[in-house]
Write a structure and sequence with these properties.
It is built from 8 helices and no strands. By secondary structure, the chain is mainly α. The chain is flat, with a radius of gyration of 21 Å. The termini are far apart.
Length: 218
């Protein structure tokens, strides 16, 4: 078994690299987009607020796999659009669009948990709304939303396996191909170990970040 694991490791590590790239890009792009959506979601402009709410409802109310398939296979079928995106681009757009909606709700909850008195106090001190959000509200929000954000980040890591439907050579697709080729379940075990190790590392990093901010709340 050891020889077989050594033999399949290079292709599985390459697949893990594809999954890691999707994970990293999604995180980098969806976090700021989620914050922007949250700010629009609580804005005083009703039409913008309703559009953001509708978007968030759509993204959270439909499966991520459906969104991936729609962007890759559905967009080219829409009359007048004829947009054919590559598999990687389709995956990134779908993941960012989906996770930005979830992050937006987390950020919105964090923002609305801040006492209204802080807004009034900042106004008395001459702060603009933008200055109040940037210097007073958002630093507190970041501390409060770390635990739920951490849960979504772990979920994102596991959700990267969904891109196998686009025939991308991610970890899950490589694993399935090896199992079918060799009629051996060992690749499943190796893939599980990869995911468990990545989850463990992420959990430790998130725990350290949470403890770091907790020190400054005391």
């Amino acid at each position: 078994m050891t020889d077989y694991i050594i033999q399949i490791l290079p292709s599985m590590i390459e697949g893990l690299g594809v999954s890691a790239e999707i994970f990293a890009l999604t995180l980098v792009l969806s976090l700021p987009l989620g914050m922007l959506l949250a700010l629009v979601r609580i804005s005083k402009i009703g039409i913008f607020r309703k559009i953001a709410a509708s978007y968030i409802y759509l993204m959270r109310g439909t499966p991520l796999m459906l969104q991936i398939l729609f962007i890759y296979y559905g967009l080219p079928l829409i009359p007048g659009m004829e947009v054919q995106l590559g598999d990687f681009s389709s995956a990134i757009i779908a993941f960012v669009a989906n996770y930005a909606a979830y992050f937006a709700e987390i950020f919105r909850g964090g923002i609305q948990s801040i006492n209204r008195g802080q807004y009034e106090g900042a106004k008395v001190l001459g702060f603009t709304y933008k200055q109040t959000m940037w210097h007073i509200i958002l630093p507190q929000v970041v501390k409060r939303v770390i635990p739920p954000l951490g849960n979504e980040v772990i979920t994102l890591l596991k959700d990267t396996s969904l891109v196998y439907v686009l025939a991308m050579n991610d970890l899950m697709r490589v694993t399935r191909a090896l199992v079918q080729r060799d009629v051996d379940t060992t690749p499943f075990i190796v893939a599980a170990v990869f995911y468990l190790v990545c989850t463990f590392v992420l959990t430790k990093i998130l725990d350290r970040i949470e403890k770091h901010y907790a020190v400054y709340e005391e």
